[in-house]
Design a protein that fits this description.
Distance between the termini: 28 Å
CATH topology of the largest domain: Fructose-1,6-Bisphosphatase, Chain A, domain 1
Number of domains: 2
Order of helices and strands: EEHHEEHEEEHEEEEHEHEHEEHEH
Number of helices: 9
CATH architecture of the largest domain: 2-Layer Sandwich
Largest sheet: 6 strands, mixed
Strand order of the largest sheet: 6-5-7-8-9-10
CATH class of the largest domain: Alpha Beta
Helix content: 25-40%
Number of strands: 16
Structural class: alpha+beta
Shape: globular
Length: 324
Amino acid sequence: MIPPVTLPSRKNPRLKFPSLGNKHTIHVSDEHVAVWEQTDPITDDHKLAESVSVIASDLGRLIKESRESAIVSTKETLDDFVTNIDVDTEIIIRNWLMRVRPRDIIIGEEKGGDPYAFDDTTWFIDPIDGTRNFINGSDAVAIHIGAIRHGNPVVSVVALPFRDLVFSNLNPPVTRRTPPSGSILGTEFRTEGSSEHLTLNSILHDSVSMLHRKQSIGCNILDLVVGDVTVFYKPRAKLWDIIAPLGLAYQLYPNRFRMTLTFERNGNIVTSPLFGHGPEVTEYINQRHSINSRIGLVIAVPATDSYFEPLIINKVNKCMSLSC
């Protein structure tokens, strides 16, 4: 059950986190208040992306304002952190989405959600991607809000609160002018010495690549979009980590990257397009969602690549379980 919250209105144009009361608030502009007050369902995907960008922008300002009041706790493991700001951010996003998209499915990192449905619009929310960075004072923090329908992204929004930036499928980041020399491999993991870390070292060695790591999947993938990263991959990926940022790359530059999902099913290794997949992949994803939401190995490579994808799949398959 998602608790109701008071959203900004013309009468009270303030946005605040439920757990902090009036300790930290921001004033929402008249233009933005009109979006927060929206009660009629938004049916146009273009308008929806614009409106979600407004929501993410204001929440980014509030996250930036409220960092000092974060209350930290742990989730699955002692190094898996969550704060009251993560939870409040997701609750606010859900309250707004339930108002303007009442028929949609919403899945979030902190509050779970119903099964992902192929024919319906399904939202994936990571309220603070890079919670460890948020706690430690780093600016490598992102908000992910993404929606897919029929296996394809329809809205992709990634906000960087501490850089005052919001990118969407309507608003691309500035691309790098000078390509990096050599291959830059982007990925994220928490535990040094883990099988994921050992697999990475083997891939770096065999591909003679340099590592790009920010402890934020959203920030890492944005660097792929702008050209600072050559290849991105993530074993044991969770949907809310990758749908919005990779959906952004897919919608903005559909011919620049190839994005795949690789997993083990009935003893066989299956590689499917991450986007544009069919109902059979949806069925698999829902099986994983009901267990721990880890869907498998996600890879994004240049569309012309014929080297990195098979190398990464082979290395991960040897060192880790593709079935998560």
